[in-house]
């Protein structure tokens, strides 16, 4: 009976939920010799899909520009289905916002690099990301926003 109360954290499935690549200024952009400016955006989301089962999606958007011209834009939605059971409520959000994206990130990094190189560009190798720090910043911003909204009398 006690075994049934043990915390469970497991990976059910990892998959690419969304993958898009645009090279809007091809073929002329391949004649350019300047180094593009790279902008990277990360976003995570999670939702329950069953009893103790959650889908977490890490979306990575990489945009390369030369001046006003877009060299390429790649967006990867790397997803996973995770089984999370018998975990205290206060630990659930950090698992979904930190542990799951840490698992998904290497797969997203590979998908981005592969898509960019298949488009004819040098692969983009994303640097490691501290999802715990991102989560803590989000919490602090939410707290600051909540305290800013409280009327002072």
What does the model show?
This protein is α+β, with helices and mostly antiparallel strands and 153 residues long. 32% of the residues lie in helices and 39% in strands. It contains two helices and four strands; from the N terminus they run E-E-E-E-H-H. It has helices at 89-118, 131-149; strands spanning 8-22, 37-50, 53-66, 69-85. A four-stranded antiparallel beta sheet has the order 1-4-3-2. A hairpin with a 2-residue loop joins strand 3 and strand 4 (69-85). Helix 1 packs across helix 2. The longest helix has 30 residues, at 89-118.
Strand content: 35-45%
* Sequence stretches where pLDDT stays below 50 over 5 or more residues: 149-153
Tally of DSSP β-strands? 4
Number of structural domains: 1
**What is the strand arrangement across the widest sheet?**
1-4-3-2
- Give the C-alpha Rg: 19 Å
CATH architecture call: Roll
Largest sheet: 4 strands, antiparallel
Q: Give, in order, the helices and strands.
A: EEEEHH
Level-1 CATH class name: Alpha Beta
Average pLDDT level: 92
CATH superfamily: SecB-like
| Shape annotation | elongated
Approximately how much helix is present in the residues?
25-40%
Give the CATH topology.
Bacterial Protein-export protein SecB
Oligomer: single chain
Taking the alpha carbons of the first and last residues, their distance comes to 54 Å
């Amino acid at each position: 009976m006690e075994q049934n109360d043990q915390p469970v954290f497991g990976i059910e499935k990892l998959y690419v939920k969304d993958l898009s690549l645009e090279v809007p200024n091809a073929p002329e952009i391949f004649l350019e010799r300047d180094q593009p400016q790279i902008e990277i955006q990360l976003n995570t989301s999670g939702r329950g899909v069953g009893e103790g089962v959650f889908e977490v999606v890490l979306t990575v958007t990489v945009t390369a520009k030369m001046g006003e011209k877009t060299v390429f834009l790649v967006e990867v939605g790397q997803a996973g289905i995770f089984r999370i059971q018998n975990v205290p409520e206060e630990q659930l959000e950090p698992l979904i916002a930190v542990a799951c994206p840490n698992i998904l990130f290497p797969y997203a990094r590979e998908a981005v690099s592969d898509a960019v190189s298949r488009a004819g560009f040098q692969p983009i190798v994303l640097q490691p990301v501290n999802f715990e720090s991102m989560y803590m910043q989000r919490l602090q911003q939410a707290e600051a926003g909540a305290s800013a909204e409280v009327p002072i009398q």
